[in-house]
């Protein structure tokens, strides 16, 4: 859905890149394990509905989100595709999950008992995946006793139907695989204690599905690299196939002027022109769009060259210093490619002392997403 908007600032999302990344993973996997598209947080900022459409076209069989609201948002559009909520959900959501056939993650006997009591009958059973905490320390059952208690609890509650079991790795993107191996062993050991295996056993996130062997089980959960981004630089150095970044953040120059030496730019007047005739351009994008103030000094692309942001980034605008005159209307790329130059989310992440995941998530709803193939 490309809606009309009156702003040159856009995040252009290449749906073909997303499909190529899924095909790359499909060809890399040694088994016919299913691919679950992780589209939580508005598909890592890329747009949940359009990304999910492209991913389903490319063959993913399930969508995974973090919250009940994210699941309901997708269910409005995708009436058939299984949707798994990876996080804890409030008991009040159970009746909605039944009505909208949304698959839930369960890991607590207390939760199961309270939910079974509150919803003693449901028209259709709610599908659930049991979560095992094999070392992430987040949510999940932590030993055989907890797991079997929950397993039998689910089997004896007609309101619930066991559809899967999964775990999540804490270090799959690192070179040292000791902790990863421990987690994998714990998971395999526990799954083997189940009286019957559910339909979907899954563990691998992007890093594990790209780098590790024999961890596909029945499905992999493909998040960050579906968007063409890397879980870590270590994974980047060992990529089994080329991935394609899907998102390009663009705007246009809305004003250009020449400063005299000593004139200032921006709040706090922190930038001072070093010489007469410096060209300063204004861009209609700021921290309310996700260009955080911590990105002061970051470069952007104009005419295929790198130019610096100068002065403090404002809420809605920022200023750049041009080497020579460019006209109003000139295209500017903040993330993505222009001619031979490229600025990646990793570059922003390095400057902000964070990871590309966080950069993708901070582009706010005010930035229109424009889709193309
Ligand atoms: C976010 C998430 C993923 C996806 O991780 P990536 O590193 O982006 O592939 C997979 N599983 C769970 C449980 C998650 O929370």
Short description:
The protein has helices spanning 15-28, 40-44, 48-57, 68-75, 94-99, 109-118, 144-155, 178-192, 206-211, 233-237, 345-351, 356-362; strands spanning 10-14, 34-38, 62-65, 83-85, 104-106, 126-132, 160-167, 200-202, 219-222, 247-252, 255-259, 264-265, 271-272, 278-283, 299-302, 305-310, 318-322, 331-338, 341-343, 369-372. With 373 residues, it is an alpha/beta fold. Strands 1, 10, 11, 14, 15, 16, 17, 18, 19 and 20 form a ten-stranded mixed sheet that branches. The chain has a four-stranded parallel sheet with strand order 4-3-2-9.
Question: Would you kindly provide a written description of the structure presented here, covering whatever features stand out?
Answer:
With 373 residues, this protein is an alpha/beta fold. It folds into two domains: 15-232, Alanine racemase (TIM Barrel), CATH 3.20.20.10; 247-354, Lyase, Ornithine Decarboxylase, Chain A, domain 1 (Beta Barrel). Helices cover 28% and strands 25% of the residues. The protein has twelve helices and 20 strands. The protein has helices spanning 15-28, 40-44, 48-57, 68-75, 94-99, 109-118, 144-155, 178-192, 206-211, 233-237, 345-351, 356-362, and strands at residues 10-14, 34-38, 62-65, 83-85, 104-106, 126-132, 160-167, 200-202, 219-222, 247-252, 255-259, 264-265, 271-272, 278-283, 299-302, 305-310, 318-322, 331-338, 341-343, 369-372. The strands form four sheets. Strands 1, 10, 11, 14, 15, 16, 17, 18, 19 and 20 form a ten-stranded mixed beta sheet that branches. A four-stranded parallel beta sheet has the order 4-3-2-9. Helix 1 (15-28) crosses helix 3 (48-57) and helix 11 crosses helix 12. The two termini are 13 Å apart. The mean pLDDT is 97. Bound molecules: pyridoxal-5'-phosphate (PLP). Pyridoxal-5'-phosphate is lined by residues 38, 40, 86, 168, 205-207, 221-224, 231. Catalyzes the interconversion of L-alanine and D-alanine. May also act on other amino acids. Its cofactor is pyridoxal 5'-phosphate.
């Amino acid at each position: 859905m490309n809606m009309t908007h009156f702003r040159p600032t856009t995040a252009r999302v290449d749906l073909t890149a997303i499909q190529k990344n899924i095909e790359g993973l499909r060809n890399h996997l040694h088994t016919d394990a299913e691919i679950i598209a992780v589209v939580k947080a508005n598909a890592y900022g890329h747009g949940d509905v359009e990304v999910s459409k492209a991913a389903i076209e490319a063959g993913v069989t399930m969508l995974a989100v973090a919250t009940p609201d994210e699941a309901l948002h997708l269910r409005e559009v995708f009436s058939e595709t299984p949707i798994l909520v990876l996080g804890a959900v409030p008991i009040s959501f159970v009746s909605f999950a039944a009505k909208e056939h949304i698959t839930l993650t369960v890991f607590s006997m207390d939760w199961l008992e309270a939910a079974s009591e509150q919803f003693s009958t449901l028209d259709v059973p709610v599908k659930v995946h049991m979560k095992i905490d094999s070392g992430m320390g987040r949510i999940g059952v932590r030993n055989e006793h907890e797991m079997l208690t929950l397993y039998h609890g689910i089997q004896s509650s007609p309101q619930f139907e066991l559809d899967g079991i999964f775990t999540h790795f804490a270090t799959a993107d690192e070179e040292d695989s000791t902790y990863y191996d421990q987690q994998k062993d714990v998971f395999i050991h526990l799954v083997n204690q189940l009286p019957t295996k559910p339909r979907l056993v899954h563990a691998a996130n992007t890093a594990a599905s790209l780098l590790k062997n024999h961890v596909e089980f029945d499905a992999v959960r493909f998040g960050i690299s579906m968007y063409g981004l890397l879980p870590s630089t270590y994974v980047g150095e060992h990529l089994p196939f080329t991935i394609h970044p899907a998102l390009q953040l663009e705007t246009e120059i809305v004003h250009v002027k020449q400063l005299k030496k000593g004139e200032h730019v921006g709040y706090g007047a922190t930038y001072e022109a070093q010489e007469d005739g410096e060209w300063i351009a204004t861009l209609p994008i700021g921290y309310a769009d996700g260009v955080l103030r911590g990105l002061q000094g970051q470069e952007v692309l104009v005419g295929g060259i790198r130019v610096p942001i100068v002065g403090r980034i404002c809420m809605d605008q920022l200023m750049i210093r041009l080497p020579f005159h460019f006209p109003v209307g000139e295209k500017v790329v903040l993330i993505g490619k222009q001619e031979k130059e490229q600025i990646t989310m990793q570059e922003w992440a390095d400057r902000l002392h964070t990871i590309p995941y966080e950069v993708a998530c901070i582009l706010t709803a005010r930035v229109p997403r424009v889709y193309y193939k």
